[in-house]
Amino acid sequence: xxxxxxxxxxxxxxxYSGQDALDNLIRVVERRGVERAFVICGRSVAHKTDLITRIxxxxxxxxxxxxxxxxxxxxxxxxxxxxxxxxxxxADMLIAVGAGTVxxxxxxxxxxxAEDKPAEELMTRYPPSGPAISPxxxxxxxxxxNVLTAATSAQNxxxxxxxxxxxxxxxxxxxxxxxxxxxxxxxxxxxxxxANLALNTGVAVYWRALxxxxxxxxxxxxxxGDRYHCFRLADRSIRRxxxxxxxxxxxxxxxxxxxxxxxxxxxxxxxTHWVARVVYALGASTFSLCDTIGQGQSxxxxxxxxxxxxxxxxxxEMAGIGRALGLEDLQPGVEAIPRIADTMExxxxxxxxxxxxxxxxxxREQLPRILEFSMKNYNADRNRHFLNETQTLTRALEQxx
Length: 401
Hints:
With 401 residues, the protein is an alpha/beta fold. The protein has 2 domains: 11-190, Rossmann fold, CATH 3.40.50; 195-400, Up-down Bundle (Dehydroquinate synthase-like, alpha domain). 47% of the residues lie in helices and 9% in strands. The protein has helices spanning 25-31, 43-48, 51-59, 76-88, 100-114, 119-122, 187-190, 195-213, 224-237, 247-264, 274-289, 295-310, 315-324, 337-350, 367-374, 378-381, 390-400; strands at 14-18, 37-40, 63-67, 93-98, 144-148, 159-162, 171-174, 182-186. The strands form 2 sheets. Strands 1-8-5-4-2-3 form a 6-stranded parallel β-sheet, sandwiched between helices. A hairpin with an 8-residue loop joins strand 6 and strand 7 (171-174).
């Protein structure tokens, strides 16, 4: 009965999707009694799209300003600058406009604005041995609205990570009070992202859906159907992303949202299998340390090598992944592992993605640093199993390079 032994929780949220969905932003602002709505975004959104102008026209005199300096992977300095700007503007709501980087960063902005401590004292800590420790952050947080420009599983979560290389790992934060009160999948907002960016973020959503297809057997009754539907949405959308059609982008947003809901309904991602955990951790470190590669691209390079190195530890899960990839006759066993890895590699290549880290500009001398950063990743390894896996993790990285 393991799959029927679980707990679940749900959180309030409002979601608006489709053409002109963003027009509903004024309803969210007024419902919350907001007087000073402050936008956080990157320079591309601010200067290459009309999204800030649209938001200004929608919320009118309740628009408090914008911080448009958020850069890739949200360096701590940018997050602190955004928090200072929002404070100076008297913000009583934060509106994140962007994809994963901006949305996660805005959660940390809310934390820094509310908690009277340095960021280093608020982040998840990793003692030399034993599990990671996430401090309880008790201060009330400003309401957050997320306006997506690309599909991301960051859209409805409470955790966040920012970049601070000197710390030796990503700075991770967690606070349930930073979940958004509203999410927007506005058709025109989603079309502001170039197709290659939408594909990169879409691949990350597809990859996670595929990894979960390998763990159907441990899915509880609330999430079993979600896993099938999430993969169906991601699989039918990933090949249809174009510059002009918002539908596959919205469907990919829905797939990512379902992945978030699944964690609330009783199953955390790190309970899936070794390949998922390894690729997630190594991928996060790779695109945090290397500006030339994105999340989906890192997964394209790392997944097949991780299957070859770690796949035999979870043969049934790997067979589930293989069947989802179309290998319907596949039977669990060590002999099936190379076939699954080859099929995974071919799939990414068909999407036009490269399958080696070096082809994205990652240098071989960066691999030890990537490994070091991967040792502290709460979502992938909260119980610190990776500390005993340095050789196998190195082997997977070397094969991916």
